[in-house]
Specification:
The protein is α/β, with parallel strands linked by helices. It has two domains: about 80 residues, no CATH class; about 170 residues, Vaccinia Virus protein VP39 (Rossmann fold). About 20% of the residues lie in helices and about 20% in strands. The chain has an eight-stranded mixed beta sheet with strand order 8-7-6-9-10-12-11-13, with helices on both faces. Helix 5 links the parallel strand 6 and strand 7. The protein starts with 13 loop residues before the first strand and ends in a 19-residue tail after the last helix. The structure holds S-adenosylmethionine. S-adenosylmethionine binds next to helix 5.
């Protein structure tokens, strides 16, 4: 089987209706289509001349809620008529949450310690920090190990921190030294902009590695305000909806994106070395399920 002819995009602009066939490998049918073998569901993606990449992404969802995935040029597997889940990065990196979802995926504590130990090590003991999307507090509690004061808030009430929508009601300009969070992915760009206004010294955002991509984010953030550091986890950081799970796995890559107010120069790329085992602590994974959010913020 040949690989897709165009790296990073489907041959002939094909897209696949994945939720119509839940276990369907996203790329294999298209790759097969390129070989003239495929008979599975696909259709050409129509690009509208007046579309921004984000508008097009929204339009691409049909009224029936079918979420198209574009082909990343990697092979999946179909054998003997049965389909196997494609665990390629290109496919797994596209977690689709409903537009009104709080995107409640708590951060395993070791991943926050990795930021503090490997990416921004130094003296923060006398500094203040804001975690503006704290959820049940799994990141904020770790930050308290490193900062003099950590403020925590979330648009939803998890019984931890203040209930406050960071996009609608960000904290006052220059109120804290650092803003550190794992924001909802669909609002991550807004969170970066708000955080850069609020923080005096730096901003650290944990996001999927693919946050680095897209023309929209290039124009919205990276062209004018590139991060000082891009720190890629070499280990996976498994995140599960609504709880921490020490045994969870994922095919999605994560990185810390760090802006330093005093930084002047090109971004620095670094790899966060294997550190999960060294940075996990007893009690990091509560036995019961997390308290889920109780109500929306007004
Ligand atoms: C990926 S979870 C991360 C939770 C926590 N930061 C952590 O790392 O464990 C995203 C969080 O953002 C919160 N959230 C969603 N929209 C928000 C908004 N507009 N303002 C503040 N928090 C928001 C969700 O309720 C959820 O707790």
């Amino acid at each position: 089987m040949r690989r897709c002819a165009l790296p990073g995009s489907c041959p002939a602009g094909f897209r696949i209706l994945v939720s119509a066939l839940p276990a369907l490998s996203a790329c294999a049918p298209v790759c097969r289509a390129a070989d003239g073998v495929s008979s599975v569901l696909f259709r050409p993606a129509m690009r509208r001349a007046d579309s921004s990449p984000r508008q097009e992404e929204r339009r691409a969802r049909s009224p029936a809620g079918l979420a198209p995935l574009s082909c990343g040029g990697q092979q999946g597997a179909i054998s003997g008529g049965a389909t196997m889940q494609n665990t390629s990065h290109a496919v797994m990196a596209q977690r689709v949450e409903p537009a009104d979802s709080p995107d409640d995926f708590p951060t395993p504590p070791w991943a926050t310690r990795a930021l503090m130990e490997h990416v921004i090590p130094g003296e923060t003991r006398a500094m203040t920090c804001l975690e503006p999307a704290c959820g049940a507090g799994h990141m904020a509690r770790v930050l308290r190990e490193y900062f003099a004061e950590v403020r925590a808030a979330d648009a939803h009430d998890y019984g931890f921190g203040e209930v406050r929508d960071f996009v609608v009601h960000p904290v006052e300009v220059g109120q804290v030294d650092w803003v550190i969070t794992n924001p909802p992915f669909r609002l991550a760009e807004e969170f970066v902009s708000r955080s850069l206004q609020v923080a005096r010294r730096g901003v650290a955002i944990l996001a999927r590695t693919v946050f680095l991509e897209s023309a929209g984010r290039y124009h919205g953030i990276f062209r004018e305000r590139p991060p000082a550091r891009f720190a890629q986890f070499v280990e996976r950081v498994p995140m599960v909806k609504g709880r921490l799970d020490a045994k969870a796995t994922t095919a999605t890559g994560y990185a810390w994106f760090v802006w330093l107010k005093e930084h002047d120069g090109p971004p620095r790329l670094q790899w966060i070395p294997p550190c999960r085992r060294a940075l996990e602590r007893p009690g990091d994974y509560p036995a019961g399920p997390d308290r889920r959010y109780r109500s929306s913020a007004s």
